[in-house]
Amino acid sequence: MSREAPFFIVGSARSGTTLLRLILNAHPKVAVPPESRFVIELYRGSQRIEIDPFLSALASHKRFQTWDLPIAVVTEELRSMAGDATEVAYPEAITAAFRAYARVNGKSRWGDKTPRYVEHLELLARLFPTARFIHLIRDGRNVALSYANVPFGPKTIGKAAALWAKRVCAGYQVGRSVLADRYLEVLYEDLVEDAEGETRDICAFIGVEFDPGMLDYTERARGSVLQRASAYNPHVTEKPTANVRSWQDSMPPDQVEVFEAVAGDTLSLIGYERAFPHPSAKARAIARLSARGLPVAKIRERA
Protein backbone atom coordinates (compact mmCIF):
# COMPACT_ATOMS: atom_id res chain seq x y z
CA MET A 1 0.00 0.00 0.00
CA SER A 2 1.25 3.45 -0.90
CA ARG A 3 2.46 5.59 1.99
CA GLU A 4 0.21 8.34 0.66
CA ALA A 5 -2.89 6.18 0.32
CA PRO A 6 -5.81 8.17 1.74
CA PHE A 7 -8.53 6.79 3.96
CA PHE A 8 -12.17 7.69 4.44
CA ILE A 9 -14.12 7.41 7.70
CA VAL A 10 -17.78 6.85 6.84
CA GLY A 11 -21.00 5.74 8.49
CA SER A 12 -24.38 6.89 9.66
CA ALA A 13 -24.28 10.31 11.30
CA ARG A 14 -24.13 10.36 15.11
CA SER A 15 -22.15 7.11 15.13
CA GLY A 16 -18.88 8.32 16.63
CA THR A 17 -17.08 9.33 13.46
CA THR A 18 -15.95 12.60 15.06
CA LEU A 19 -14.42 10.61 17.92
CA LEU A 20 -12.52 8.40 15.47
CA ARG A 21 -11.42 11.44 13.51
CA LEU A 22 -9.91 12.97 16.65
CA ILE A 23 -8.10 9.76 17.57
CA LEU A 24 -6.52 9.45 14.12
CA ASN A 25 -5.82 13.16 13.86
CA ALA A 26 -3.78 12.85 17.07
CA HIS A 27 -1.27 10.67 15.17
CA PRO A 28 1.93 12.64 14.47
CA LYS A 29 1.78 11.82 10.76
CA VAL A 30 -1.95 11.82 10.04
CA ALA A 31 -4.21 14.80 9.29
CA VAL A 32 -7.99 14.44 9.22
CA PRO A 33 -9.74 17.79 8.67
CA PRO A 34 -13.38 18.57 9.52
CA GLU A 35 -15.77 16.82 7.15
CA SER A 36 -15.45 17.89 3.55
CA ARG A 37 -18.58 17.00 1.55
CA PHE A 38 -17.02 18.81 -1.42
CA VAL A 39 -15.30 15.66 -2.72
CA ILE A 40 -18.71 14.48 -3.94
CA GLU A 41 -20.48 17.82 -4.29
CA LEU A 42 -17.89 19.34 -6.65
CA TYR A 43 -17.61 16.23 -8.81
CA ARG A 44 -19.29 16.66 -12.20
CA GLY A 45 -18.55 13.28 -13.73
CA SER A 46 -15.51 14.38 -15.71
CA GLN A 47 -12.16 12.76 -15.05
CA ARG A 48 -10.26 15.95 -15.93
CA ILE A 49 -11.13 19.44 -14.77
CA GLU A 50 -9.87 22.99 -15.26
CA ILE A 51 -7.77 24.17 -12.35
CA ASP A 52 -8.97 27.75 -11.93
CA PRO A 53 -12.73 27.03 -11.83
CA PHE A 54 -12.08 24.19 -9.39
CA LEU A 55 -10.12 26.43 -7.04
CA SER A 56 -12.86 29.06 -7.20
CA ALA A 57 -15.57 26.51 -6.40
CA LEU A 58 -13.50 25.03 -3.58
CA ALA A 59 -12.80 28.41 -2.00
CA SER A 60 -16.51 29.23 -1.91
CA HIS A 61 -17.59 25.85 -0.50
CA LYS A 62 -18.87 26.27 3.06
CA ARG A 63 -17.27 23.06 4.31
CA PHE A 64 -13.85 23.98 2.92
CA GLN A 65 -14.13 27.31 4.67
CA THR A 66 -14.37 25.52 8.03
CA TRP A 67 -10.85 24.16 7.45
CA ASP A 68 -9.41 27.62 8.02
CA LEU A 69 -6.99 26.92 5.16
CA PRO A 70 -6.09 29.75 2.74
CA ILE A 71 -6.98 28.81 -0.83
CA ALA A 72 -3.54 30.13 -1.79
CA VAL A 73 -1.98 27.17 0.02
CA VAL A 74 -4.10 24.74 -2.01
CA THR A 75 -3.25 26.66 -5.18
CA GLU A 76 0.46 26.34 -4.44
CA GLU A 77 0.10 22.61 -3.80
CA LEU A 78 -1.91 22.03 -6.96
CA ARG A 79 0.43 24.11 -9.13
CA SER A 80 3.38 22.09 -7.84
CA MET A 81 1.60 18.93 -8.95
CA ALA A 82 0.30 20.20 -12.29
CA GLY A 83 3.17 22.36 -13.47
CA ASP A 84 2.06 24.59 -16.33
CA ALA A 85 -1.03 22.52 -17.14
CA THR A 86 -4.43 24.19 -16.99
CA GLU A 87 -6.22 20.90 -16.37
CA VAL A 88 -5.70 18.04 -13.94
CA ALA A 89 -7.44 14.81 -13.01
CA TYR A 90 -10.20 15.47 -10.51
CA PRO A 91 -8.67 13.19 -7.84
CA GLU A 92 -5.39 15.13 -8.12
CA ALA A 93 -7.20 18.40 -7.42
CA ILE A 94 -8.89 16.92 -4.36
CA THR A 95 -5.61 15.40 -3.20
CA ALA A 96 -3.96 18.83 -3.42
CA ALA A 97 -6.49 20.25 -0.96
CA PHE A 98 -5.94 17.49 1.56
CA ARG A 99 -2.17 17.54 1.11
CA ALA A 100 -2.15 21.27 1.73
CA TYR A 101 -4.14 20.79 4.93
CA ALA A 102 -1.78 18.05 6.07
CA ARG A 103 1.30 20.11 5.25
CA VAL A 104 0.26 23.21 7.20
CA ASN A 105 -0.42 20.93 10.15
CA GLY A 106 2.98 19.27 9.90
CA LYS A 107 1.58 15.92 8.74
CA SER A 108 2.36 13.66 5.79
CA ARG A 109 -0.77 11.45 5.48
CA TRP A 110 -4.34 12.54 5.00
CA GLY A 111 -7.73 11.09 5.63
CA ASP A 112 -11.32 12.28 5.41
CA LYS A 113 -14.19 12.03 7.87
CA THR A 114 -17.51 12.60 6.11
CA PRO A 115 -20.15 10.12 7.31
CA ARG A 116 -22.53 10.53 4.37
CA TYR A 117 -19.86 9.34 1.93
CA VAL A 118 -20.95 5.87 3.03
CA GLU A 119 -23.49 6.16 0.20
CA HIS A 120 -20.77 6.88 -2.38
CA LEU A 121 -18.16 4.21 -1.70
CA GLU A 122 -18.02 2.87 -5.26
CA LEU A 123 -17.38 6.32 -6.72
CA LEU A 124 -14.73 7.14 -4.12
CA ALA A 125 -13.07 3.78 -4.72
CA ARG A 126 -12.85 4.55 -8.44
CA LEU A 127 -11.52 8.07 -7.89
CA PHE A 128 -8.95 6.91 -5.32
CA PRO A 129 -7.88 3.38 -6.26
CA THR A 130 -5.53 3.00 -3.27
CA ALA A 131 -7.91 4.46 -0.68
CA ARG A 132 -9.02 2.57 2.40
CA PHE A 133 -12.50 2.83 3.93
CA ILE A 134 -13.33 2.62 7.62
CA HIS A 135 -17.04 2.07 8.24
CA LEU A 136 -17.91 2.99 11.82
CA ILE A 137 -21.20 1.46 12.99
CA ARG A 138 -23.10 2.25 16.17
CA ASP A 139 -26.27 0.65 17.50
CA GLY A 140 -29.00 2.47 15.61
CA ARG A 141 -31.21 2.83 18.65
CA ASN A 142 -28.52 4.97 20.30
CA VAL A 143 -28.05 6.86 17.04
CA ALA A 144 -31.78 7.68 17.03
CA LEU A 145 -31.63 8.91 20.62
CA SER A 146 -28.73 11.21 19.78
CA TYR A 147 -31.01 13.19 17.45
CA ALA A 148 -33.33 14.09 20.33
CA ASN A 149 -31.49 17.25 21.38
CA VAL A 150 -29.95 18.55 18.16
CA PRO A 151 -31.58 20.89 15.61
CA PHE A 152 -30.87 18.68 12.60
CA GLY A 153 -31.60 15.18 11.40
CA PRO A 154 -34.77 13.07 11.60
CA LYS A 155 -37.24 13.83 14.37
CA THR A 156 -39.27 10.62 14.35
CA ILE A 157 -38.09 7.20 15.42
CA GLY A 158 -39.19 5.64 12.14
CA LYS A 159 -37.33 8.13 9.98
CA ALA A 160 -34.19 7.84 12.13
CA ALA A 161 -34.36 4.06 11.85
CA ALA A 162 -34.83 4.18 8.08
CA LEU A 163 -31.90 6.55 7.58
CA TRP A 164 -29.62 4.51 9.83
CA ALA A 165 -30.52 1.26 8.10
CA LYS A 166 -30.09 2.79 4.63
CA ARG A 167 -26.59 4.07 5.35
CA VAL A 168 -25.40 1.06 7.31
CA CYS A 169 -26.58 -1.30 4.57
CA ALA A 170 -25.04 0.86 1.84
CA GLY A 171 -21.62 0.59 3.47
CA TYR A 172 -22.02 -3.04 4.42
CA GLN A 173 -23.09 -4.22 0.98
CA VAL A 174 -20.56 -2.28 -1.11
CA GLY A 175 -17.76 -2.70 1.39
CA ARG A 176 -18.05 -6.46 1.68
CA SER A 177 -18.87 -7.22 -1.94
CA VAL A 178 -16.81 -4.66 -3.87
CA LEU A 179 -14.02 -3.24 -1.74
CA ALA A 180 -12.82 -6.45 -0.06
CA ASP A 181 -9.50 -5.79 1.72
CA ARG A 182 -9.88 -2.02 1.29
CA TYR A 183 -12.82 -2.00 3.70
CA LEU A 184 -12.89 -2.27 7.51
CA GLU A 185 -15.92 -2.32 9.77
CA VAL A 186 -15.51 -0.99 13.30
CA LEU A 187 -18.23 -1.06 15.93
CA TYR A 188 -18.45 2.09 18.02
CA GLU A 189 -19.07 -0.02 21.10
CA ASP A 190 -15.83 -1.94 20.51
CA LEU A 191 -13.90 1.30 19.99
CA VAL A 192 -15.15 2.62 23.31
CA GLU A 193 -14.53 -0.62 25.21
CA ASP A 194 -11.04 -1.25 23.78
CA ALA A 195 -9.75 2.00 22.34
CA GLU A 196 -6.14 0.85 22.13
CA GLY A 197 -6.86 -2.51 20.53
CA GLU A 198 -9.24 -1.09 17.95
CA THR A 199 -6.93 1.84 17.21
CA ARG A 200 -4.00 -0.52 16.67
CA ASP A 201 -6.08 -2.49 14.18
CA ILE A 202 -7.13 0.66 12.36
CA CYS A 203 -3.53 1.88 12.18
CA ALA A 204 -2.45 -1.44 10.68
CA PHE A 205 -5.30 -1.19 8.18
CA ILE A 206 -4.33 2.28 6.94
CA GLY A 207 -0.59 1.54 7.04
CA VAL A 208 0.73 3.69 9.88
CA GLU A 209 2.41 2.69 13.12
CA PHE A 210 0.31 2.95 16.25
CA ASP A 211 1.32 5.90 18.40
CA PRO A 212 0.35 5.84 22.12
CA GLY A 213 -0.31 9.58 21.93
CA MET A 214 -3.39 8.85 19.84
CA LEU A 215 -5.12 7.78 23.04
CA ASP A 216 -4.43 11.24 24.50
CA TYR A 217 -6.71 12.78 21.90
CA THR A 218 -8.82 14.37 24.65
CA GLU A 219 -6.01 16.87 25.16
CA ARG A 220 -4.61 17.03 21.65
CA ALA A 221 -8.01 17.38 20.00
CA ARG A 222 -9.43 20.41 21.75
CA GLY A 223 -8.33 22.78 19.01
CA SER A 224 -9.48 20.40 16.25
CA VAL A 225 -13.20 20.43 17.02
CA LEU A 226 -15.36 22.98 15.24
CA GLN A 227 -17.59 25.11 17.45
CA ARG A 228 -20.68 23.64 15.81
CA ALA A 229 -19.47 20.06 16.32
CA SER A 230 -18.57 20.78 19.92
CA ALA A 231 -22.03 22.19 20.57
CA TYR A 232 -23.76 19.10 19.22
CA ASN A 233 -21.21 16.66 20.66
CA PRO A 234 -20.47 18.21 24.07
CA HIS A 235 -18.57 15.16 25.34
CA VAL A 236 -16.51 14.51 22.21
CA THR A 237 -13.24 15.60 23.81
CA GLU A 238 -13.90 13.46 26.88
CA LYS A 239 -13.18 9.76 27.22
CA PRO A 240 -16.38 8.05 26.03
CA THR A 241 -18.24 5.30 27.83
CA ALA A 242 -20.25 2.58 26.17
CA ASN A 243 -23.45 3.43 28.03
CA VAL A 244 -23.71 7.16 27.35
CA ARG A 245 -27.36 7.67 26.39
CA SER A 246 -27.96 3.90 26.34
CA TRP A 247 -31.16 3.00 24.57
CA GLN A 248 -31.84 0.29 27.18
CA ASP A 249 -32.12 3.00 29.83
CA SER A 250 -33.19 6.05 27.86
CA MET A 251 -35.48 4.95 25.01
CA PRO A 252 -39.14 4.23 25.83
CA PRO A 253 -40.03 0.60 25.02
CA ASP A 254 -42.72 1.61 22.53
CA GLN A 255 -40.11 3.57 20.57
CA VAL A 256 -37.67 0.66 20.69
CA GLU A 257 -40.36 -1.51 19.16
CA VAL A 258 -41.09 1.03 16.42
CA PHE A 259 -37.38 1.38 15.63
CA GLU A 260 -37.01 -2.38 15.35
CA ALA A 261 -40.09 -2.62 13.17
CA VAL A 262 -38.21 -0.49 10.64
CA ALA A 263 -34.58 -1.51 11.11
CA GLY A 264 -34.65 -4.77 13.04
CA ASP A 265 -33.20 -6.79 10.17
CA THR A 266 -30.26 -4.39 9.92
CA LEU A 267 -29.65 -4.63 13.66
CA SER A 268 -29.53 -8.42 13.31
CA LEU A 269 -27.29 -8.20 10.24
CA ILE A 270 -24.66 -6.30 12.22
CA GLY A 271 -25.05 -8.51 15.28
CA TYR A 272 -27.03 -6.30 17.65
CA GLU A 273 -29.59 -8.04 19.84
CA ARG A 274 -33.22 -7.13 19.26
CA ALA A 275 -35.62 -6.43 22.09
CA PHE A 276 -38.65 -7.08 19.86
CA PRO A 277 -37.85 -9.83 17.31
CA HIS A 278 -41.52 -9.80 16.28
CA PRO A 279 -42.93 -6.26 16.50
CA SER A 280 -46.68 -5.97 16.95
CA ALA A 281 -49.04 -4.95 14.18
CA LYS A 282 -49.54 -1.62 15.94
CA ALA A 283 -45.79 -0.97 16.06
CA ARG A 284 -45.44 -1.85 12.38
CA ALA A 285 -48.27 0.51 11.44
CA ILE A 286 -46.77 3.37 13.45
CA ALA A 287 -43.38 2.58 11.93
CA ARG A 288 -44.69 2.98 8.39
CA LEU A 289 -46.11 6.42 9.15
CA SER A 290 -43.13 7.50 11.20
CA ALA A 291 -40.64 6.41 8.53
CA ARG A 292 -42.38 8.76 6.08
CA GLY A 293 -41.64 11.66 8.39
CA LEU A 294 -45.19 12.11 9.62
CA PRO A 295 -45.34 13.49 13.17
CA VAL A 296 -45.83 10.06 14.70
CA ALA A 297 -43.47 8.54 17.28
CA LYS A 298 -41.37 11.66 17.68
CA ILE A 299 -38.00 10.90 19.21
CA ARG A 300 -38.07 11.30 22.97
CA GLU A 301 -36.07 10.09 25.92
CA ARG A 302 -37.60 8.11 28.73
CA ALA A 303 -38.83 10.37 31.54
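[next item in queue]
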Amino acid sequence: MAVHVAIVGASAPTEAQAASAEAVGRALGTAGAVVITGGGGGVMAAAARGAAENGARVVAILPGSDRTAANPWSEIVLATGMGELRNGLIVRAADVVIAVGGAYGTLSEIALALSAGTAVIGLDTWAIDGVQMAAGPDDAVARALALAGEG
Protein backbone atom coordinates (compact mmCIF):
# COMPACT_ATOMS: atom_id res chain seq x y z
CA MET A 1 0.00 0.00 0.00
CA ALA A 2 1.24 3.49 -0.84
CA VAL A 3 2.56 5.80 1.86
CA HIS A 4 0.09 8.56 2.74
CA VAL A 5 1.76 11.92 3.39
CA ALA A 6 -0.11 15.02 4.52
CA ILE A 7 1.32 18.34 3.43
CA VAL A 8 0.13 21.21 5.58
CA GLY A 9 1.16 24.83 5.69
CA ALA A 10 0.69 28.44 4.83
CA SER A 11 -2.41 29.62 3.00
CA ALA A 12 -0.41 32.70 1.95
CA PRO A 13 3.12 31.28 1.56
CA THR A 14 6.23 33.12 0.54
CA GLU A 15 7.54 32.30 -2.93
CA ALA A 16 10.19 30.08 -1.34
CA GLN A 17 7.58 28.19 0.72
CA ALA A 18 5.36 27.66 -2.34
CA ALA A 19 8.36 26.41 -4.33
CA SER A 20 9.30 24.05 -1.48
CA ALA A 21 5.75 22.69 -1.26
CA GLU A 22 5.62 22.07 -5.00
CA ALA A 23 9.02 20.33 -4.90
CA VAL A 24 7.83 18.14 -2.01
CA GLY A 25 4.72 17.25 -3.98
CA ARG A 26 6.78 16.40 -7.08
CA ALA A 27 9.12 14.14 -5.14
CA LEU A 28 6.25 12.38 -3.39
CA GLY A 29 4.54 11.86 -6.73
CA THR A 30 7.68 10.33 -8.17
CA ALA A 31 7.92 8.07 -5.09
CA GLY A 32 4.35 6.83 -5.59
CA ALA A 33 2.95 8.34 -2.40
CA VAL A 34 -0.63 9.45 -1.81
CA VAL A 35 -0.63 13.16 -0.97
CA ILE A 36 -3.22 14.56 1.43
CA THR A 37 -3.91 18.29 1.75
CA GLY A 38 -6.63 20.60 2.98
CA GLY A 39 -7.57 21.20 -0.65
CA GLY A 40 -7.21 24.98 -0.65
CA GLY A 41 -4.68 27.45 -2.01
CA GLY A 42 -1.18 28.36 -0.95
CA VAL A 43 1.01 25.47 0.19
CA MET A 44 -1.90 23.06 -0.33
CA ALA A 45 -2.30 24.00 -4.00
CA ALA A 46 1.44 24.07 -4.68
CA ALA A 47 1.94 20.62 -3.15
CA ALA A 48 -1.10 19.22 -4.96
CA ARG A 49 0.10 20.61 -8.29
CA GLY A 50 3.58 19.13 -7.90
CA ALA A 51 2.17 15.80 -6.77
CA ALA A 52 -0.55 15.49 -9.44
CA GLU A 53 1.81 16.45 -12.25
CA ASN A 54 4.11 13.62 -11.14
CA GLY A 55 1.61 10.81 -10.83
CA ALA A 56 0.44 11.02 -7.23
CA ARG A 57 -3.13 10.58 -6.12
CA VAL A 58 -4.08 13.79 -4.32
CA VAL A 59 -6.72 13.73 -1.60
CA ALA A 60 -8.28 17.02 -0.48
CA ILE A 61 -10.03 17.17 2.88
CA LEU A 62 -12.01 20.41 2.77
CA PRO A 63 -13.31 22.41 5.73
CA GLY A 64 -16.55 23.31 3.95
CA SER A 65 -19.36 21.43 2.23
CA ASP A 66 -18.66 22.48 -1.38
CA ARG A 67 -16.50 19.98 -3.32
CA THR A 68 -15.95 22.55 -6.07
CA ALA A 69 -13.91 24.65 -3.61
CA ALA A 70 -10.94 22.28 -3.94
CA ASN A 71 -7.91 23.29 -5.95
CA PRO A 72 -7.87 21.79 -9.47
CA TRP A 73 -5.10 19.28 -8.72
CA SER A 74 -7.16 17.41 -6.13
CA GLU A 75 -8.32 14.03 -7.42
CA ILE A 76 -10.33 12.80 -4.44
CA VAL A 77 -12.26 15.56 -2.68
CA LEU A 78 -13.87 15.06 0.72
CA ALA A 79 -16.10 17.99 1.74
CA THR A 80 -16.46 17.65 5.50
CA GLY A 81 -18.42 20.73 6.55
CA MET A 82 -16.35 20.62 9.74
CA GLY A 83 -14.33 23.85 9.51
CA GLU A 84 -10.96 23.68 11.24
CA LEU A 85 -11.94 20.39 12.88
CA ARG A 86 -11.03 18.79 9.56
CA ASN A 87 -7.36 19.39 10.50
CA GLY A 88 -7.61 16.30 12.69
CA LEU A 89 -8.84 14.24 9.75
CA ILE A 90 -5.94 15.40 7.58
CA VAL A 91 -3.27 14.32 10.05
CA ARG A 92 -5.05 11.11 11.12
CA ALA A 93 -5.27 9.98 7.48
CA ALA A 94 -1.49 10.33 7.06
CA ASP A 95 1.47 8.13 7.89
CA VAL A 96 3.71 11.22 8.08
CA VAL A 97 3.08 15.00 8.00
CA ILE A 98 5.25 17.57 6.22
CA ALA A 99 4.63 21.17 7.34
CA VAL A 100 5.73 24.06 5.11
CA GLY A 101 5.48 27.52 6.65
CA GLY A 102 2.13 28.24 8.22
CA ALA A 103 0.31 30.03 10.97
CA TYR A 104 -1.97 28.82 13.77
CA GLY A 105 -3.91 26.37 11.59
CA THR A 106 -0.64 24.67 10.70
CA LEU A 107 0.40 24.72 14.35
CA SER A 108 -2.84 22.91 15.23
CA GLU A 109 -2.13 20.25 12.59
CA ILE A 110 1.40 19.81 13.90
CA ALA A 111 0.14 19.48 17.48
CA LEU A 112 -2.59 17.00 16.50
CA ALA A 113 -0.09 14.88 14.57
CA LEU A 114 2.48 14.86 17.36
CA SER A 115 -0.21 14.08 19.92
CA ALA A 116 -1.28 11.09 17.80
CA GLY A 117 2.32 9.86 17.50
CA THR A 118 2.59 10.79 13.81
CA ALA A 119 5.98 12.10 12.72
CA VAL A 120 6.16 15.71 11.54
CA ILE A 121 8.86 17.00 9.18
CA GLY A 122 9.21 20.79 9.02
CA LEU A 123 10.31 23.20 6.31
CA ASP A 124 10.42 26.85 7.40
CA THR A 125 7.68 26.18 9.95
CA TRP A 126 7.10 26.06 13.69
CA ALA A 127 10.32 24.85 15.35
CA ILE A 128 8.77 23.10 18.33
CA ASP A 129 9.71 19.94 20.18
CA GLY A 130 8.95 16.89 18.09
CA VAL A 131 9.15 18.58 14.67
CA GLN A 132 12.09 17.25 12.66
CA MET A 133 13.36 20.24 10.70
CA ALA A 134 14.51 19.39 7.17
CA ALA A 135 17.25 21.12 5.18
CA GLY A 136 15.08 21.31 2.06
CA PRO A 137 12.36 19.55 0.06
CA ASP A 138 14.48 16.51 -0.86
CA ASP A 139 15.53 16.02 2.75
CA ALA A 140 11.91 16.37 3.92
CA VAL A 141 10.69 13.71 1.49
CA ALA A 142 13.59 11.36 2.24
CA ARG A 143 12.87 11.64 5.98
CA ALA A 144 9.12 11.16 5.47
CA LEU A 145 9.60 8.05 3.34
CA ALA A 146 12.14 6.61 5.77
CA LEU A 147 9.82 7.19 8.74
CA ALA A 148 6.99 5.51 6.86
CA GLY A 149 9.23 2.54 6.13
CA GLU A 150 9.53 3.28 2.41
CA GLY A 151 12.97 4.89 2.28
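[queue empty]
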